Amino acid sequence: METKFAFEPWTITERGFQPENLRENESVFALANGLIGMRGNLEEASASGADTIQGTFINGIFDSEPIVYGEAAYGYAKNHETICNVMDAKGLVLTVNGESLDLGRSKVEGHTRILDLRRGTLHRSFLWKTAGGAVLEVEMERIVSLTRQHLAAMKIRVYCISGSANVQAVSQIRPARIAAGDPNDPRNAGGKDRSLKTGNRRADGNCLSMQQFTKNSGQVICCAVNHVCENGQADACLAGDGLSWTMQCLLSAGSCLDLEKSIAYTAGKADEAAQLMAMAEEECQQAPSYTVLAAEQREYLDTFWESAGMSIEGDDALLQGLRFNLFHILQSAGRDGLRSVCAKGLSGEGYEGHYFWDTEAYILPVILHTQPEIARKLLEYRYSILPAARARARELGHEKGALYPWRTIDGQECSAYFPAGTAQYHIDGDIAHAVAEYYFSTQDLNFMADCGAEMLEETARFFYDLGFYSREKDGRFVINCVTGPDEYNVLVNNNTYTNRIAAETFINAAKFMRLLEEKRPEEYQRLCERIGYEEQEAADWEKAAELMYYPPKKDGICLQDDDFLNRKPWPLETIPAEKRPLLMHYHGLTIYRHMICKQADLILAMVQFGDSYTEEEKKQNFHFYDRVTTHDSSLSMAIFSILASEIGETEKAYDYFMSSARLDLDDMQGNSKDGLHLANMAGTWNCIVRGFGGMRFEEDTISFHPVCPAQWKGYSFRVIFRGRTIEVKVTPEGASYELICGEPVEILADGERRRLG
Ligand code: BGC
Predict the structure, then answer these.
(1) Which of 459, 534, 559, 468 is nearest to 502 (CA)?
(2) Is the Cβ atom of 356 under 6 angstroms away from ligand 1?
(3) Rounded to 5°, angle at Cα 573 from 572 and 575
(4) Best probe residue, ligand 1, of 358, 490, 583 (max atoms within 8 Å of C-beta)
(5) Cβ neighbours for 219, distance < 8 A, ≥ 6 positions apart
(6) Which of 449, 467, 556 is nearest to 503 (CA)?
(7) Cβ(213)–Cβ(277) below 8 Å
(8) pTM of whole model > 0.85?
């Protein structure tokens, strides 16, 4: 396997300056905490001869502008929402005896950057032999605090080994941004004016602070930076559109410059700008030292790895990929109930910082079994946009229920292309599924009473209104003109996955309304009044679930939708590599009329609703869909890997897992520069836990059916389930289960009941 990073268990190390990889490594080295995201840009921002994509993001902070359609029509999404690339405070420009550090020109040796997955830091070091003769050892480290949402920090040390160095260190808040993104690539929607308006700026002693306002969305971002340095006097001032703090000192051999930067970001509604600015200033001035923050970070991550620990014996490359993926998932998830997980995390502008079904279908299971409190927050975010989802359903002509947007930040539908956007109604079911799984795994009835039951009920109402009992289909409940997860087959009738998840939504909505009635009668009563719920609705949903239509099998093939087999064959081997991904080289109409898939769809239905299919059906269909799927979406391979494990095709499962585990570390899709593929990253956890480990929810408990790929000596993983941490260890000889913490619990191991603890 070709790889640019050595296989190390807990670190990702870039050795030597690699100008050709700078942009994708900026994504790999991104640090975030669910609110603040900083790309792994060089402190001096640029290097001669290397392309860079500068980026600092605040999850959920976006600007909007009207979508301009050549031919607009009723109900189209109205506005773009695009995550803002906000003022950059991680910069530090070093100049020694008049020479500014530039990796493209300066004489630098041993340049190394290390992302440390246990410390949560990005560390950089190098030796600089300046033109003037001074030799300096430079170290820089940064942190985006996982324990303090508004804080990030940096530590810089410049040590003079020989000669004398007149050092100038300029720390800046830079508002300017270099536009990223290819306007012709629908995945990153470049070419838009994303500039922000500068508000108040203050330079006061060692503290710089500044506001930026979005142009149309009524939001403000505030940033404040405090500097601590004992090497001498500094000068803070307004500089161009931004601000700078300049420290000048003379270093002789054996002396050094030590500097710490505390960086605070706050953001919110524009009319709260003054308070938010004061908050940012206070936060950075009262920030603990870098050492304290780093110790907190380490402690937080120790606890995380304690509950999310995984190991693979005999495959360092995969283990590194897995841990790297988990680290980025943890970093990217919103934690305050007001934001979710962007498709690219907080590592780039790809997909404009939008939230998709990626969160509920891929990422949430990982968070649910490693950080259940954060899982609740992600679902609370969906509850916070329920009013917008109700309004959208009305706009589309549905009298009842709520339709969640296919892609959004603040709840409005932002998908300008409805066939592969709004028509993916399955998103309602994905959210409902996540709510039910959350309850199953946590038994958090408060959540169900506060938000969960209402979300289930509103999504069930929507599906009930969307479908109908069709005479053509013997009176069964059909759902027509939808797009399933596979975006290469759009506006189809009876997408199997959609119908199955709609049926599940019906059953769960009825079940949880009854559960609430029994366990929390007063809250149930209040909910019924608020939403005008009548008991008959549950009976209606249950009947629709029972009579749900699924396209019948033809020659053993379970159809992805009514007409899947009636499309023109397009053998994958006839499509040259340079024509991939298809969406970049063929018109949609060409793609849609062919029997070809972008991603797992029917296979996902088989993974999610395994009990509805026989082993034989799974096998036959795995091979059929394997032959017609391009995997042009990074969400695809993990799902194929999970089903392959289930049907005993461990080699295939392994191959798919291999292709997804290091997808971003090795830039396998060639677009990691635009940000990391968060759903795929989560997919690799799912490959291990749900695939090789065979974890499922069954008979009111959790069950495992582990297999061990021949390439490994063994592997292990931990999951949190109902307050317990369970460790599963698998070797070619068999599996063992251990309760790491929590009350005794019963599980199903290969079909047998076992009590742990
Ligand atoms: C996939 C979708 C996914 C989106 C964002 C698309 O390429 O087809 O399933 O939600 O990317 O990751």
Answers:
(1) 459
(2) yes
(3) 70
(4) 358
(5) 61, 62, 63, 84, 213, 267, 268, 269, 270
(6) 467
(7) no
(8) yes
The answer to whether 714 and 731 are in contact (CB under 8 A) is yes
At 236-293, the pLDDT tens digits run 999 888 999 999 999 999 999 999 999 999 999 999 999 999 999 999 999 999 999 9
Is the beta carbon of 633 within 6 A of some atom in ligand 1? Answer: yes
- Tallying the residues shown for the chain, one arrives at 757
Regarding beta strands 701-704 and 745-749, do their DSSP bridges make them parallel or antiparallel, or are they unpaired?
parallel
CA 121 – CA 141 distance, rounded (Å)? 7
Answer whether 130's CB lies under 8 Å from 107's CB.
yes
265: phi then psi, degrees, rounded to nearest 5:
-120, 135
Q: What is the CA radius of gyration of the chain?
A: 27
Compute the distance between CA of residue 88 and CA of residue 38 in angstroms, rounded to an integer: 8
Whole-number Å distance, alpha carbon 633 to ligand 1 midpoint, is 6
pLDDT, the chain, mean: 96
> pLDDT value at position 180?
59
User: Which amino acid is residue 349, in one-letter code?
Assistant: E
pLDDT averaged per 10 residues in sequence order, the chain, 757 residues: 86 97 98 98 96 96 95 96 96 96 98 98 98 97 98 98 97 77 64 82 96 97 97 88 95 97 98 98 98 98 94 93 98 98 97 97 98 98 98 98 98 97 98 98 98 98 98 98 98 98 98 98 97 97 98 97 98 96 97 98 98 98 98 97 96 94 95 97 97 93 96 96 97 97 97 95
Give the atom of ligand 1 at the shortest distance from the alpha carbon of 632.
7
Please confirm, yes or no, whether 457 is among the known catalytic residues. Answer: no
Ramachandran sector of residue 507 (left: φ over 0; alpha: ψ -120 to 50; beta: rest):
alpha
Burial (0-12, 13-18, 19+ Cβ within 10 Å), 732:
exposed
List the alpha helices (DSSP H) in 334-371. 358, 364-368
Quick check: CB of 653 below 6 Å from ligand 1?
Answer: no
For residues 344 and 327, give the distance between their C-alpha atoms in angstroms, rounded to a whole number: 14
Ligand 1 nearest atom to the CA of residue 679, by list position: 12
Whether 599 lines ligand 1, by a CB cut-off of 6 Å, is yes
Here the contacts of 39-42 (C-beta below 8 Å, separation 24 or greater) are: 39/347, 39/348, 40/113, 40/115, 40/122, 41/88, 41/90, 42/103
Looking from the CA of residue 487, the nearest atom of ligand 1 is 8
Residue 17 three-state SS: coil
CA 144 from chain centre, in angstroms, equals 17
The conformational region for residue 352 under phi > 0 = left, psi -120 to 50 = alpha, else beta, is left
**All structural domains of the chain:** 11-289 (2.70.98.40), 415-551 (1.50.10.10)
Decide if 408 contacts 357 (C-beta within 8 A): no
Q: H or E element: which one contains 303?
A: helix 290-308
| 577 vs 65: CA distance, rounded Å | 36
**What are residue 631's phi and psi, to 5 degrees?**
55, 35
CB of residue 406 inside a 6 A radius of ligand 1: no
Spatial CB neighbours of 401, under 8 Å, sequence gap ≥ 6: 390, 393, 458, 459, 460, 461, 462, 463, 464, 465
Could you tell me which of 426, 416, 341, 412 has the C-alpha nearest to residue 677? 341
How many other CB atoms are found less than 10 A from the CB of residue 60? Answer: 24
Q: Which residue in the block uniquely carries the two structure tokens 């997408």? A: 495
Separation CA 246–CA 168 (nearest Å):
7
pLDDT per position as a tens digit, 553-609: 999 999 999 999 999 999 999 999 999 999 999 999 999 999 999 999 999 999 999
The distance of Cα 674 from the centroid of its chain, to the nearest Å, equals 13
Residue 16: enclosing H or E segment and its boundaries? Answer: none
Encoding tokens for residue 608? 């999610």
Q: Report the alpha-carbon distance of residue 325 to residue 681 in Å, rounded.
A: 5
Ligand 1 within 6 A of 636 CB? no
